[in-house]
Write a structure and sequence with these properties.
- By secondary structure, the chain is an all-beta fold.
- The chain contains one helix and 56 strands.
- Strands 37, 38, 40, 41, 45, 46, 47, 51, 54, 55 and 56 form an eleven-stranded mixed beta sheet that branches.
């Protein structure tokens, strides 16, 4: 079992001996319900006799005892720190003070059931509360009030500036600042306090004295601390690069003896606080190996710890605080050298046309390769070769070991089938083989069909493009463009015969549309490819190349057009395509007949998100640009992932805002800025960042 102390990312050695268990509990199918407690009108905490591994809504049911009315369970989720507790949410607000039975059905073969009863609230307010009462100094934190019944069930919860009719909340703001739009409060120094008073009114009065009856009033002290967060979740894994999406990570704690050089593994960590914020980059803890004769580790939780294998065996990664105290130990194993154990083709049979031009990339038919080691990881290949077993024909195949793919073309009038033995060899010299058959087909169809094909910058047939700019802090040169070359190909007998060069068929138009049907670029027979509108930067399409024309009777299909999804210019990586689906439609003229060929491609963007943290909203500035982007970061800070962007490296592009109060108030929905990728000022991207804050100015004319 591995434990991790509370507050371990925020200085010192944690708070007391409180720990968060982060390993998965062993599943016990005889686990039963111990108790049920209502938290809100729709939320319940179910405490189990033992920890669960998973919990779903289907595992639980609820009925009202007096009439057996079934209450549908909307969702069930395990507590992040205590897996004996399950949060149940139902669709119906339960406030009738009646008794309900909650039943859990175990996953064992017998479907063992256990139950517990709970009497729900009647909604009568008996107490008030303020949450949280500790906030991080100099950090805007939402303060909420709660009204509760006699058993602590939350009757209502709202921001302190969004009070319901029966509630009054006042606060002492001498040491702090309240954002009335968001109920976010700032105390600037550790130790500063603020008094909040919550009053719940009944609006019932004594007929004799006129005094209000059963009023509930309570004072609360909110205190600023170094950091009010606590760690509730963390994960770690060893990999060749930092995980992009931890939700999709299968944790690994094993490295191999030959994980060196380009194959070196690093231990990466993800840590979240009690509010679900990723605070990994705030952790200043170091990582060391418990046994340098097995593995050497030298790094940090924040940046990851490179691992150097020495010998087979087991050790621990020791997490140390600033005082050198070990606050956690994480198991790590060094195993045998990686060697290939799995080798297969996505398509063991490929069909090609015998009339296709040899080595014409758009006619290439691919079979992708899966090569894995004994640990289930992809393994690099030192060599990828083939042996032509039949040798009767000259069908060409082109193995690419780094791309892990095989391209097959036909051509030269060959027909029939050929068999190949494909051999993959790893860095240790171990080889595995598999078979590939290429069928060379004679296309006899007199009525061909036409298809649109997309090729990437490596001339491989693809269906998508990722506009992400690589996070290489050392890169000063322009990263490779992300492009799609678009060609129309002819198919006969189900196989591609080549690019369309039939002189009776010409291009009348080519257009690119977004998934909502908006035409964003179009070429017609009397003009070169051009932009037909001026969309926002994230939606711009750049089409390079043109369509050869002779009046309205185009003599032949011109060479491919190129869609540039991403390119770099003057230090800025421009992303011309937003995330989504795009369709390319060709109109082909065949005498008086118009034929169409169309296909769609997807754009994804796995770029790390950029967020804005608003520090101050009141100023004497006259323009929003001077507040939203300030070289000192006085008003707004920007973060690339969890790493703060240097204020001087942020460039203002535009803002979406709504003005009021004589232009003195500006509600900023979002701001568009240019920020460096992973701190590399030579490589910036344009991003639109949500803000959703009201900024005020004391300037006489308001915001200009």
């Amino acid at each position: 079992m591995v434990d991790f102390p509370m507050n371990s990312c925020f200085g010192g050695s944690g708070v007391g001996n409180t720990k968060v268990v982060v390993t998965e509990a062993v599943v016990d199918n005889t686990t039963k319900i111990a108790s049920v407690k209502q938290d809100t009108f729709t939320d319940f905490t179910v405490t189990m006799s033992k920890a669960l591994e998973t919990a779903t809504a289907a595992d639980f049911s609820m009925v009202r005892d007096d009439d057996n009315q079934v209450i549908t369970v909307k969702s069930a989720s395990l507590d992040a720190t205590d897996k004996t507790k399950v949060k149940l949410t139902v669709y119906t607000s339960l406030t009738d003070a009646k008794t309900y039975t909650v039943t859990y059905t175990a996953a064992d073969e017998a479907k063992t059931q256990s139950s517990a009863k709970v009497t729900v609230t009647d909604g009568t307010v008996a107490a008030v509360n303020i949450t949280p009462v500790e906030i991080t100094a100099n950090k805007a934190t939402k303060i909420e009030y709660q009204t509760l019944d006699a058993n602590g069930v939350i009757v209502s919860q709202k921001g302190v500036t969004k009070q319901e009719s029966k509630v009054d909340v006042t606060w002492d703001s001498l040491l702090g600042t309240m954002d009335t739009d968001t109920s976010e409060y700032i105390l600037y120094n550790v130790g500063d306090t603020a008094k909040f008073t919550v009053t719940y009114h009944t609006y019932k009065y004594d007929t004799t004295t006129g005094a209000e009856l059963d009023v509930i009033t309570k004072d609360f002290t909110v205190t600023a601390v170094k950091d009010a967060s606590v760690i509730t979740q963390y994960a770690y894994t060893v990999a060749t690069s930092e995980p992009y999406d931890w939700a999709k990570v299968t944790p690994k704690q094993t490295i191999a003896l030959n994980d060196e050089g380009a194959a070196q593994r690093t231990a990466y960590f993800q840590i979240k606080d009690s509010k679900g914020n990723d605070v990994t980059k705030s952790c200043e803890y170091t990582v060391e190996s418990s046994d340098n004769s097995v593995v050497v580790a030298d790094g940090t939780v924040k940046d990851g710890a490179p691992l150097n294998p020495v010998s087979k065996g087991s050790a621990y990664l020791m997490i140390k605080d600033g005082d050198g105290k070990v606050v956690s130990t994480l198991p790590i194993t060094v195993g045998e050298k990686r060697t290939i154990t799995t080798f297969k083709l996505s398509s063991p049979v490929l069909n090609v046309a015998n009339t296709a031009s040899t080595n014409a990339k758009e006619t290439c038919v691919y079979s992708d390769i899966t090569a894995k080691d004994q640990y289930g990881d992809d393994i690099a290949l030192a060599d990828l070769t083939y042996d032509n077993k039949t040798g009767n024909h000259t069908t060409a195949i082109d193995p690419k070991k780094d791309a892990k793919t095989i391209c097959a073309y036909a051509g030269n009038g060959n027909k029939g089938s050929e068999s190949y033995i494909i051999k993959a060899t790893d860095s240790l010299g171990k080889s595995m083989t598999t078979s590939l058959r290429v069928n060379s087909i004679v296309p006899t169809d007199a009525n061909p069909t036409f298809s649109v094909v997309f090729l990437d910058e490596n001339n491989k047939v693809v269906s998508s493009v990722d506009t992400t700019v690589a996070e290489d802090a050392n890169a000063t040169d322009a990263p490779a463009s992300k492009t799609l070359k678009v060609v129309v190909v002819e198919k006969k007998n189900g196989v591609v015969t080549g690019k369309t060069t039939d002189s009776t068929r010409g291009v009348r138009s080519v257009q690119v549309t977004k998934n909502d049907g908006t035409v964003i670029a179009k070429a017609v027979s009397d003009a070169s490819v051009k932009i037909t509108s001026s969309p926002a930067i994230s939606d711009t399409v750049m089409l390079n190349g043109g369509v050869g024309v002779t009046g309205t009777a185009v003599s032949a299909v011109a060479d491919a057009i190129t869609i540039t999804a991403r390119e770099k210019s003057t230090g800025l990586s421009e992303k011309h395509l937003g995330v989504g689906t795009y369709t390319v439609v060709y109109e082909l003229i065949n005498g008086t007949k118009v034929e169409k060929a169309a296909a769609s491609f997807n754009v994804k963007d796995t770029q790390t998100a950029v967020t804005a943290k608003v520090k101050e909203t009141a100023s004497s500035e006259t323009t929003l640009s001077s507040v939203l982007v300030d070289s000192t970061g006085k008003y707004v800070e920007y973060y690339y992932g969890s790493v703060k962007v240097a204020p001087a490296d942020v460039d203002f592009v535009g803002v979406k805002a709504t003005y009021s109060n004589g232009n003195k108030n500006a509600y900023v929905t979002n701001v568009t800025v240019k920020v460096p990728v992973a701190g590399n000022a030579n490589n910036k991207i344009t991003v639109t960042v949500p803000v959703n804050k009201t900024f005020t100015t004391s300037a006489a004319g308001g915001w200009s």
